[in-house]
Design goal:
By secondary structure, the chain is α+β, with helices and mostly antiparallel strands. The chain has seven helices and five strands; from the N terminus they run H-H-H-H-H-E-E-E-E-H-E-H. The structure holds zinc ion (ZN).
Length: 182
């Protein structure tokens, strides 16, 4: 720990949760024989400080802008990849479209129950908690499994993106009509 603190200049973990996250990530790095670098810790800290869904750009801007720490976008992306492989964050497939910068992530080390509507177009998330949904999940009994926390994602299109798509479609059919009339 002392060695790490010296290298990063970062403060020691403020809470138990972050300590647990470090521990899980460190054991993953050990398993893969990878180094514990200050850059990797900066990405964990930024993820820890971010609420809800985030992209690689948001984490990168947070580190460079708010944390005043310098690293490359590629390192940020690679570290998010490692965090995903160590099951500390979750990658949303919906909005990807083949562009890594459009990938949305969410941390899965937060111990609370919540539900999300996720827009496939813009990635916006609308968080809610619904007692009847929670009850339904708790009523499912599977071989003595005791559910503690979970996150539910419902993918779709938000009102703003839906309106934009409808307008674009209308515009397209108008243009097509005009072209046919010509
Ligand atoms: Zn949207």
């Amino acid at each position: 720990m002392a060695e790490k603190k010296e290298k990063t200049g970062a403060e020691p973990p403020k809470d138990q949760l972050l300590e647990d996250v470090y521990r899980i990530f460190e054991s993953y790095l050990r398993m893969c024989k990878m180094r514990r670098t200050p850059e990797r810790y900066a990405v964990i800290d930024a993820v820890h400080q971010t609420d809800g869904i985030f992209t690689v750009d948001q984490i990168y801007n947070h580190i460079v802008g708010k944390m005043n720490f310098h690293l490359s976008l590629a390192t940020t992306y690679n570290t998010l990849d490692l965090l995903e492989k160590s099951h500390l964050i979750l990658r949303h497939q919906a909005n990807w479209k083949g562009d890594p910068r459009l990938v949305h992530y969410e941390k899965c080390f937060v111990q609370d129950v919540h539900h999300n509507f996720v827009c496939k177009e813009c990635g916006n998330t609308f968080r809610f908690a619904d007692k009847s949904l929670m009850g339904a999940i708790n009523r499912i009994k599977r071989a003595g499994f005791r559910p503690e926390s979970y996150t539910l994602f419902v993918y779709g299109t938000c009102a703003r993106c839906h309106n934009r798509q409808t307008k674009a479609k209308k515009q397209e059919s108008k243009t097509n009509k005009r072209n046919i009339e010509k």
